Amino acid sequence: MNNVSVIQAQNLKKVYGHKQEKKYMALQDVSLEVAAGDFVGVMGASGSGKTTLLNMLATFDRPTSGTVRIAGKDVTALKGNALADFRAQQMGFIFQDFNLLDNLTIAQNISLPLSLQGKTSKIKRSVREIAESLGIKDLLDKYPAQLSGGQKQRVACARALINKPQILFGDEPSGALDSKAARSLLELLQKINSEQKTAILLVTHDAFSASFCRRIIFIKDGQIGHELVRQPGQSRVEFYQLILEQLGTFEQ
Amino acid sequence: MLFKLAFSSIRHRWKDYLLLFSGLAISSAIFYLFETIASNSSFLQLNGQTVSHMIGYVFSFGSVLLCLLTLIYLNYANSFLLSMRQRDYGLFIMLGTRKKRIGRLIWLETMLLGAAATILGVIIGVALSMGLSNLVTNFLGAAARHYQPWWLPAFGWTLVVYLGLFFLAASWNTVMMTKKPVLQLLKAERQSDFRVSKPIVLMAQLIIGLILLVIGYYVMMHPLVYKQYTILIALVTLSGGTFLLFKAVIVSLLQWLIKLPVAKKGLNGFTLAQLRFRVADYTKVLTGITMMFAMALGAITVGSNLHKTIENNARVAGAYDLRIVDPSTKQLSLIKQLSLQEKREYTFSKQGDNLIFSTQQFANQQLETVQRGETVSDYTMKKIANSDTSLLTLALTNYLGEAGSTNNKIVIQANSTKTGSQHKVLFIRTNGLAANAKVLKKIANIEKNKYSNTTNLWLGAWTSYEQISILYSGLEFMAMLLGISFLAMLASCLMFKILSGSFADIPRYQLLRKLGTREGKLRSAVRREISVLFILPAILGVVHVLFGLKLFSTIIANPYQQLWIPFGIFGLIYFAYYCFLSVIYQRIVLKKEVDK
Lengths: 252, 596
Ligand SMILES: Nc1ncnc2c1ncn2[C@@H]1O[C@H](COP(=O)(O)OP(=O)(O)OP(=O)(O)O)[C@@H](O)[C@H]1O
Ligand SMILES: [Mg+2]
Hints:
The complex is a heterodimer of chains A (252) and B (596). With 252 residues, chain A is an alpha/beta fold. Chain A contains eight helices and ten strands. Chain A has helices at 50-57, 80-90, 106-116, 123-133, 149-161, 179-196, 207-210, 236-251; strands at 5-16, 24-35, 39-44, 65-70, 73-74, 91-94, 167-171, 199-203, 215-220, 223-229. In chain A, the strands form two sheets. Chain A has a six-stranded mixed beta sheet with strand order 6-7-8-3-9-10, sandwiched between helices. In chain A, strands 2-1-4-5 form a four-stranded antiparallel beta sheet, with helices on one face. In chain A, a hairpin with a 7-residue loop joins strand 1 (5-16) and strand 2 (24-35). In chain A, helix 3 (106-116) crosses helix 4 (123-133) and helix 3 (106-116) runs parallel beside helix 5 (149-161). The N and C termini of chain A lie far apart (37 Å). Chain B has 596 residues and is an alpha+beta fold. Chain B has helices spanning 2-12, 14-38, 41-94, 99-140, 152-179, 182-186, 199-221, 223-226, 229-259, 268-277, 279-317, 329-337, 360-364, 389-400, 437-448, 461-514, 519-548, 564-589; strands at residues 322-325, 340-351, 354-358, 368-372, 379-383, 402-403, 406-407, 409-413, 421-430. In chain B, helix 4 runs antiparallel to helix 5 (152-179). The longest helix of chain B has 54 residues, at 41-94. Chain B starts with a helix and ends in a 7-residue tail after the last helix. Classes of the chains: A alpha/beta (252), B alpha+beta (596). At the A-B interface, helix 2 and helix 3 of A face helix 10, helix 16 and helix 17 of B. The structure holds adenosine-5'-triphosphate and magnesium ion. Magnesium ion is lined by residues 50-51 of chain A. Adenosine-5'-triphosphate is lined by residues 16, 24, 26, 44, 46-52, 205 of chain A. Chain B: Keywords: Cell membrane, Membrane, Transmembrane, Transmembrane helix, Transport. Chain B: Its main location: membrane.
């Protein structure tokens, strides 16, 4: 299971700032691999380059140099429709601010990726299935403005999962949630990861969220500093302690 | 500090302000331009001699329409301004600024913007009318002498109307902003209408809307019955009817479409949701756009049809093109060049101011007169029986009553008399005034030279033809100007509407892109959404115009003649504008992040 990589990033570099402006190097020479079905967390201080890295991997931005391969395909070379289709078919996204369309109902929001791919016949059944498994089937006819933060987050999750992507990206998905809602979201992700074998890459700055991952990558000043892997048999609480210790030494 | 903040946010969105500002300036420039003609009384009087009531009517109608449209236009412009500012103001209030200070700031901002735009508009207006004065000379002919690019009353009017309206807008904004809850100001763009209308309500709206439209159309088809109230009634009923119809039809159409399987395909669901989301807002805008569309198209159609009707309208004025008393040899040889349809020759004797005709000659050659109907095109030539002395007297008085400085009296008696000087009079009717214009003009000039004073001399249909030509070219100019003004306002209203929606749309389209929507699909979604704003008003607007043209059948012989020319030109402009706006909109909402 772990011998195929979904993501292979090599020597990623990102420099911000236009020609005349002051340059800022947000990422310098980052290489990483994510195996199929893995659950990876990216941690680091504010401004360390986590979002930047995620944007590169998720094809939202292009690296200044370096390559990103997803499911064996070099996405830095993809353009236009090929890129759009690739996103629609292979990837799912959950953002910190949920990013639901406020003028669509919850059901429409969830089914958007299927609509975009023209898989209209499957919509009804898929939406019902996923909504049931995420416990949001009573909300399907409402609008985002009528939902709580945690509910919206679960809807975003449902939307990200409906087309059964190879990999799910999340940027601080639990950032705006209270600890209870955050826990249920993370347990949900864990369940998805283990049941559907969807690889997950999660950016987070808090140790609690990170403790749900199998592997954690620490970033500092645009470089990968350290890696932690949860050993088989290690409980989540133990792993959590380990992360806290690591953060303590890492931040100094 | 507050002023600094306010100013910095203006600087941040200078493009939108520029748009708003230039729209307002152009609108006031057009208003000024129109007023240079409408408030120039010497120009009006010069044209107004013959048909003064009509031209007065048309001009005041134009003025009222323009004022009304300006009102609607400023309303849209103001809501665009509000939509740009209310988040900022909400933020100021949240940060603890006193409402009174905020109110003053809003008031000042609106007034400053308005006053600056108005003044600039007048300057542009003067420049425009100078540039246009060549065109004006061509159109207005003799009357152009009285046309002045810099016209003080027009300036006064523009200032009064615009500053007055801006004063109202500023006060309105102040009240709106200081009374609304802060949360509403901050989240203004996220407000939405989730309500589903009941079928009964929709049905009632549909029926009332249709009834209002029928009333409006009926009134426009009978302008002689409702006289000066026609326009007022039509404007009110048509606006109301359009609004209700749009409301009922769009809402039920959307509710129906959303249930169809196609709604799930691609971005269809998204586009439908966008429309449904904005439907309350859209019905108002669509109504405004429809009315402007109808008036612009109507004005241009009427304007382009005016010159085609001159011949007809002159014919209605008299059965004969010219009357010639004691034709000279030159005139007789000129008459030979005409293609004549009718020719009558009578003799009379002149005793002092009395012109004495014998009845007998009208039995042999019956004189004709024009029998008018309801509309100008609806007339017949009627032969006058020689026994009908009073009608004969009336007809002859028309042609011969005025003789320069004296007034003649027509006498018709059984026997001819040999006392007094003997004269001959010739009545000719050609087969076309325009076709024979050159020769007719020469003959008429010789005829005029026989009199010392020619101001009130009426020689027949030809005289009317000359007068109406001048009058109608004035009207044509005005109609075109009005049409272009309406079109310009229509254009900038659409622009405001579409652009003020774009701010809320940017994140939506951005998200769709992130979810993996193809570029082409995004573009076609934008195009489709905008096309609704263009197509629906166009359909109803064309129907309004088709009925509205009937209104002009009192001054135009066949308002429906060659409709496709103005409609085609207008359609092309409209389509080009659609393309333009949809490209602009795509540029705004589909800004590229990746793929640089
Ligand atoms: N578009 C941009 N232009 C210029 N600099 C940028 C841009 N985006 C990010 N940066 C800079 O790059 C660095 C990394 O930013 P990034 O958003 O990746 O941080 P982060 O690790 O996600 O932080 P946080 O935890 O606060 O979200 C920061 O110093 C930021 O100022
Ligand atoms: Mg971040």
